[in-house]
From TrEMBL:
It comes from Methylosinus sporium. The gene is rpiA. Catalyzes the reversible conversion of ribose-5-phosphate to ribulose 5-phosphate. Its EC number is 5.3.1.6. Pathway: Carbohydrate degradation; pentose phosphate pathway; D-ribose 5-phosphate from D-ribulose 5-phosphate (non-oxidative stage): step 1/1. GO terms for biological process: pentose-phosphate shunt, non-oxidative branch. The active site is at E108. It is an enzyme of class 5 (isomerase). Homodimer. This is Ribose-5-phosphate isomerase A. The lineage of its organism: Bacteria, Pseudomonadati, Pseudomonadota, Alphaproteobacteria, Hyphomicrobiales. Substrate binds at T31, G32, S33, T34, D86, G87, A88, D89, K99, G100, G101, G102, K126.
Length: 238
């Protein structure tokens, strides 16, 4: 049998997370190709009669879920969620994540933080010993973007992180703008030896709206690989 593709693995992880969904739940819906599989599978359950109310983390996910007939609310309408399911760009053994490759990190973090449980779904290529192989996205306000970028460079140099900090561009060269109207700096340093310290320092910079280090948020990471699906943490209620 041929090895499953990365896309098939993402769908397998999404299917495991779907088992944690129960009728009546309020759900956060992540963003990205893996989260899109979850939304797709959830849509089929909703069509079959599952009653849930969902808060999407991006306009892209909102459009997908709406097209599938998934009942939607804003986070203001449903400010306390039972479960959020989302992908990640990287995770380590402590379930620390880098997120934001799809540019939705701010809403993803707000929604995850409003959830009792946060299940991350990934294929095995996202597992790392040390975070940082994937460039860290940092969302910034457009006002004073150059000053904020210099500040991010200073702070990261102080922590011994050497690399590039640059604005994310769209294909064609235009600057990428998030759903919330912010910009993203992609910070490519390689191994981040102390993600907790970096998270604290970035959060303290005026102009940084949010960063893509998700620490202490994931309650489970479902990892689909060629040898099957393994779960770090607990997908079920405690
Ligand atoms: O953080 C994200 C979007 O902001 C995504 O979860 C992350 O980029 C992973 O995406 P994919 O599932 O397509 O690999």
């Amino acid at each position: 049998m041929p090895a499953p593709s990365a896309d098939e693995l993402k769908r397998q992880a999404a299917a495991v997370a779907l088992e944690a969904v129960a009728p009546g739940m309020r759900l956060g819906l992540g963003t990205g190709s893996t989260a899109a599989h979850f939304v797709d599978l959830l849509g089929a359950k909703v069509k079959a009669g599952l009653d849930v109310l969902c808060v999407p983390t991006s306009e892209r996910t909102r459009a997908q879920a709406a097209a599938l007939g998934v009942p939607l609310a804003t986070l203001d309408e449903a400010p306390e969620l039972d479960l959020t399911v989302d992908g990640a760009d990287e995770f380590d053994a402590k379930m620390r994540l880098i997120k934001g490759g799809g540019g939705a990190l701010l809403r993803e973090k707000i929604v995850a933080a409003a959830s009792k449980r946060f299940i991350v779904i990934t294929d095995e290529s996202k597992r790392v010993e040390t975070l940082g192989a994937f460039p860290l996205p940092v969302e910034i306000d457009p006002f004073g973007a150059k000053a904020t970028r210099l500040h991010v460079e200073r702070v990261t140099r102080d922590l011994g992180l050497i690399g590039t900090v640059g604005p994310r561009l769209k294909p064609g060269g235009h600057v990428f703008v998030t759903d919330g109207g912010h910009l993203i700096l992609d910070c490519a340093f390689g191994a981040i030896s102390d993600p907790d310290a970096l998270a604290d320092r970035l959060s303290a910079i005026p102009g940084v709206v949010e960063h893509g280090l998700f620490i202490g948020l994931a309650t489970a990471v479902v990892v689909a690989g060629r040898d099957g699906v393994v779960t770090l943490g607990r997908t079920g209620a405690a």
